[in-house]
Amino acid sequence: MTGQWNISAVLLDMDGTLLDTEKVYFKSLIAALNACGFTDDVAPLCRTMVGLPGPDCERLLIDRYGDDFPLAEITKAFVARRDEFIGAGLPLKHGTIELLDALQAIECPFAIVTSSSRRTAHEHLTLAGIRSRFDTILTRDDVTRGKPSPDLYLLAAARLGVKPELCVAVEDSNHGVTAAHAAGAITIMVPDMVPPTEESRARCAAVLSDLNAVRAMLLDRGGLARRS
Fold this sequence. Notes:
- The protein is α/β, with parallel strands linked by helices and 228 residues long.
- It contains 10 helices and 6 strands, in the order βαααααβαβαβαβαβα.
- A 6-stranded parallel sheet has the order 3-2-1-4-5-6.
- Helix 6 (118-127) links the parallel strand 2 and strand 3.
- Helix 1 (22-35) packs across helix 4.
């Protein structure tokens, strides 16, 4: 996309975009699988789960290991290891506070659009110290089909009372980019653990290094500063 953007709202993915959690999930799942005897080529499988809702990740594990896969045992081990990692608080991605400050300063509506459950989203935003920033939080519990379906982004735009094509969506994963683009949003990717595919690059208005670069682009291309 070239030229100025007409923006009515900004839609923000949570894990890997605002919160530095994807590495925690990745390490926790590998540790849980290894502890239960699953050690062969687990890292590539876990990378395919980045950006997917929990139920879809569970299906990938069952498809890989069979119907007798000890899902309950793995889930318990995963949660224990995850909670151990994040017990001291959740780190924010570089530029998170600056981006939220800029959006609030010019009263641009924004929302969380996450594949996490409602409970997890609220807990993790609280641990990260930014829960109070968000009036609108859309999670996998709000739709039947999570990312890469566009449903969450379409619902987020509707909740904010704006057209999807007037929204900028900020994502870190290829699955998230697919969802945002399919909803018609102007999509920006800030890659975290997984690099963008060629398909994702084609779907994005920009692929940027961090959220400070997103903020700069929104101020420049989106004309957000002119609202103040």
